[in-house]
Amino acid sequence: MAAPPQLKALLQAVNALLRKRRYHAVLALLKGFRNGAVYGAKIRAPHALVMTFLFRSGSLREKLWAVLQATYTHSWNLARFVLTYKGLCALQAHLQGQTHQVHSALAACLGGMLVFGENNNLNSQINMYLTSRVLFALCRLGVEKGYIPEPRWDPFRLHTGVIWGIVLWLFEYHRHTLQPSLQSSMTYLYEDSNVWHDLSDFLIYNKSRPSK
Predict the structure, then answer these.
(1) Terminal Cα distance for the chain, rounded
(2) 3-state DSSP call for residue 4?
(3) How would you write 106-133 as a 3-class SS string?
(4) Is residue 179 a contact partner of residue 125, using CB atoms and an 8 Å limit?
(5) Nearby residues of 183 by Cβ (< 8 Å), 6 or more positions away
(6) From the CA atom positions of the chain, what is the Rg in Å?
(7) Residues 75, 40: contact at Cβ < 8 Å?
(8) I need a surface site. Which of 55, 57, 132, 135 has the fewest CB within 10 A?
(9) Tens-digit pLDDT profile for the chain (212 aa)?
């Protein structure tokens, strides 16, 4: 079925508007907001679904609500951050007549504090995700710029051993310093595996089901 002429005319007008360079900066903000919302939902929904149903107690309705809440919050926050970041970058470039590297850092710093500055579980996960990748990237940049001598051998195995050694030491003796979700995962792996009563909670279930 063909689209009504009015709809086709409207789509043509919208497409013509989208192709105008004079509106590109504003439209880029809108698409950035859209992409932030979509990406936030795509990466948070499956993670929240798995973690909630694996480690969270409560009814099915409560679990589904928790998944939806986490997905919405991540999607909304990331959309706002992208909009804020791109807007501040565009504003600085407009005021100074050109783009500088510091513009990106300042815009992201301010946007991060405004959007992700609240100390909660969701923002902590995002910040820790970024922290590990920033440290890796800075090490690589340091090697590229000559500030860090290039290793003569691949240090990945040593790095892996140090990280695993530290995290298990923290779990065993300073558990409160680890993020709650990591504590839950490690408890499941290293402590719950020390307890069983019969075949049911040795092989089938992690913990014995309460008898009715």
Answers:
(1) 60
(2) coil
(3) HHHHHHHHHHHCCCCHHHHHHHHHHHHH
(4) yes
(5) 171, 175
(6) 24
(7) yes
(8) 57
(9) 667 888 888 888 888 888 888 888 899 999 999 999 999 999 999 999 988 887 788 888 999 999 999 999 999 999 999 999 999 999 999 999 999 999 999 999 999 999 999 999 889 889 999 999 999 999 999 999 999 999 899 999 999 999 999 999 999 999 999 988 889 889 989 999 988 888 887 888 888 776 65
Cα–Cα distance measured from residue 110 to residue 84, given in angstroms and rounded to the nearest whole number? 9
Closest C-alpha to 187, from 203, 207, 202: 207
Measured CA distances, 17 to 20, 38, 157 (Å): 5, 23, 54
CB 112 within 8 A of CB 81: yes
Instruction: Please give the Cα distance from 81 to 206 (Å, whole number).
Output: 40
What is the rounded distance in angstroms from the CA atom of residue 131 to the CA atom of residue 183?
19
Sign of the CA dihedral running 72, 77, 80, 82: negative
Residues 89/108, Cβ–Cβ less than 8 Å: no
Q: Do 82 and 39 form a contact (C-beta atoms < 8 A)?
A: no
Sign of CA dihedral 163, 169, 172, 173: negative
Q: Which two three-digit tokens encode residue 181?
A: 């979700």
How many alpha carbons fall within 13 Å on the CB side of residue 80?
Answer: 14
